[in-house]
Design brief:
Strand 2 (about 115-125) and strand 3 form a beta hairpin. Helix 2 packs antiparallel against helix 3 (about 35-55). The protein is built from 7 helices and 5 strands, in the order H-H-H-H-H-E-H-H-E-E-E-E. The radius of gyration is 24 Å and the shape is elongated. A 5-stranded mixed beta sheet has the order 1-5-4-3-2. About 45% of the residues lie in helices and about 30% in strands. By secondary structure, the chain is α+β, with helices and mostly antiparallel strands.
């Protein structure tokens, strides 16, 4: 809860609201004091401007969620080169797959496995790790010749050269009781 307050503009907005209430009390006690009028005007303007600024600022969590959705669009457009560009150079999957192996796997999804469409559902970007990486979990539905196959994907994202890139990944069957990772 505290991180949600600090990450957005809630903290400064609460502070501006407290100043506004105090300024209104000050203005009420001395209605002709120009400093009180100025204080009310400034704190009221801050309460109006801060939400607009917060709307314009994109947080790291939002950037990671947008990167996940971008990869979904690239996968459905069969733009595997762009997907691999969004992978960290130090990428490793739990199965030992590296960046080059991931490109080979993605390239053969349709030919070997019959995957026609990929849908990402509910990307949930969690609190950042101590090393600055962001864990993200989402379900992914693969649709194709075999019907539908739903998996749970747990990724870790790292910022490199100003862009968020997939650093680690674990893929498990969504409804598997023991949550054994798939050999990816």
């Amino acid at each position: 809860m505290w991180q949600a307050i600090c990450e957005g503009a809630w903290g400064p907005m609460a502070f501006a609201a407290i100043i506004l209430v105090g300024s209104l009390g000050w203005l009420r006690s001395s209605p002709k004091d120009k400093r009180a009028i100025f204080s009310v005007a400034i704190s009221a303007a801050a309460l109006i401007i801060l939400p607009m600024i917060n709307w314009l600022v994109v947080t790291d969590r939002e950037s990671v969620a947008m990167a996940v959705k971008t990869m979904e669009r690239q996968a459905n457009a069969r733009d595997f080169k762009s997907i691999v560009d969004g992978i960290d150079p130090e990428f490793r999957s739990h199965g030992g797959l590296d960046k080059k192996g991931l490109h080979a796997l993605l390239s053969t999804l349709e030919a070997r496995h019959g995957v026609k469409m990929i849908q990402v559902k509910r990307p949930d970007v969690l609190s950042p790790n101590a090393d600055g990486t962001f864990p993200c979990e989402f379900t992914m539905r693969l649709t194709g010749d075999f019907g539908e196959f739903v998996v749970l994907v747990k990724t870790t994202w790292k910022k490199r050269e100003g862009a968020w890139r997939v650093h680690r990944v674990i893929v498990t069957r969504l409804l598997d009781k023991d949550q054994t990772p798939l050999p990816v």
